[in-house]
Specification:
The chain is an alpha/beta fold and 198 residues long. The protein has a single domain, classed as Rossmann fold (3-Layer(aba) Sandwich), CATH 3.40.50. Helices cover 32% and strands 29% of the residues. The chain contains five helices and eight strands; from the N terminus they run αββαβαββαβββα. The strands form two sheets. It has a six-stranded mixed beta sheet. Strands 5-6 form a two-stranded antiparallel sheet. A hairpin with a 5-residue loop joins strand 7 and strand 8. Helix 2 packs parallel to helix 5. It is globular, with a radius of gyration of 22 Å. The protein starts with a helix and ends in a 5-residue tail after the last helix. The N terminus is likely disordered.
Length: 198
């Protein structure tokens, strides 16, 4: 049941586009940021959904010059020889790997006030007849916005160490393209500001 709800939630997130807002909530950067800048990045979106992975990785590489999507480079995400992968990345000139994943999907329910009579006695009568109104709706006529939490991490290929990490929240996300673009833009902007991307 949880798997079905998660699938439906992810599907619902990426169908249309308006009113969404993305913001970084937390970031961390290595103390060695000044000497940790990467210039040739492999972009990875961790998803078993091939179409979703391609779409998001394409949006990430649009934000980073000289970046390449991992779907052209890593076909299988399950059977990976770490040493062979690292050697291949180094041979192809990659010095950084940016990994993005959906960490959580939440729903912020909206309080919907019920009918408020103009006088006390009318309210008194309604209060007893409709004990669950006003209420938070959680059923077929759902009220509320989804919030998608995305984690982004930048690793050094040479040292295998974490260089930068951040979490973002996107409220009311309705388009995978816009979510991916906004998250990548915010994260990449912050990485540039902190000196780990050119």
């Amino acid at each position: 049941m949880r798997l079905k709800l998660t699938f439906l939630a992810i599907t619902a997130l990426f169908v249309g586009a308006c009113g969404q807002e993305t913001r970084l909530t937390t970031t961390w950067v290595t103390p060695q940021a000044a000497t940790s800048q990467v210039r040739h990045v492999l972009a990875v979106f961790a998803s078993k959904d091939v179409v979703l992975r391609h779409t998001v990785e394409d949006r990430i590489v649009q934000q980073i010059p000289n970046a390449q999507p991992s779907y052209n480079f890593i076909e299988s995400t399950t059977d990976i020889d770490r040493d062979a992968l690292r050697k291949e990345m180094l041979d192809k000139g990659f010095d950084g790997v940016l990994v993005m994943r959906v960490a959580d999907i939440d729903r912020q329910l909206t309080y919907v006030p019920g009918t408020w009579p103009n006088d006390f006695y009318g309210y008194w009568g309604n209060a007893w007849r409709y004990p669950y109104d006003p209420s938070y709706y959680d059923g077929d006529g759902l009220y509320g916005n989804y919030v998608i939490i995305v984690e982004t991490a930048l690793y050094s290929v040479n040292s295998n160490n974490l260089i930068w990490a951040g979490r973002s929240r996107t409220s009311d996300p309705k388009s995978i393209n816009k979510v991916a673009s906004q998250v990548a833009r915010h994260a990449v902007g912050k990485m540039r500001q902190q000196g780990v991307l050119p």
